[in-house]
Design brief:
about 160 residues; alpha/beta; Rossmann fold; three-stranded parallel β-sheet; two-stranded antiparallel ribbon; globular
């Protein structure tokens, strides 16, 4: 244990350091809140967040009610995953259904999460009007670059 005079010196030294740091902060201008004009644009190497539906997108019902893969969409999911897209699988059938279908198709590892498709969407923007939301039909798949360009164009038109 330190004798009292040395402890007093140590406390005084820490107090003086704290006062000096506070004085520096007093003269630093306050941080300006980030606005759309000052925000740094998202880099193209950041992942693109893609939500993939299950029924009538990854699989469709056959004549006997069996779930048949839609091969070009399954291949597209694999390609997007290889290219670095962050994929999420969702379904109105719920999380278990989404994961089960992905497992059956051999693409479970491509997805970051499995979700129930939203029933209520609480947001200040309608999904179709949002600057970062682009709908892609399974019959009109494109490249990751085309998706990025579509998101950027929609954001720029806002």
């Amino acid at each position: 244990m330190l004798p009292i005079p040395e402890a007093d010196e140590l406390i005084a030294s820490h107090a003086l350091d704290s006062i000096r740091r506070a004085e520096v902060d007093l003269f630093r201008p306050p941080a300006r809140p980030e606005t759309s004009e000052t925000a740094i644009p998202r880099q193209m190497d950041e992942p693109l967040f893609v939500y993939v539906d299950v029924d009538d997108t990854l699989v469709r019902k056959g004549p006997d009610g069996e779930e048949l893969p839609i091969p070009h969409v399954v291949d597209h999911v694999r390609a997007l995953h290889r290219q670095g897209a962050q994929l999420h699988c969702w379904s109105t059938g719920g999380e278990h259904h989404a994961r089960s279908i992905a497992q059956q198709l051999g693409i479970e590892q491509c997805f970051s999460s499995f979700l129930h498709k939203p029933q209520v969407f609480i947001d200040d923007e309608r999904a179709a009007q949002g600057p970062h939301f682009v709908h892609i039909s399974p019959d009109a798949l494109g490249t990751l670059e085309e998706y990025r360009a579509a998101v950027a164009a929609k954001h720029d038109s806002k």
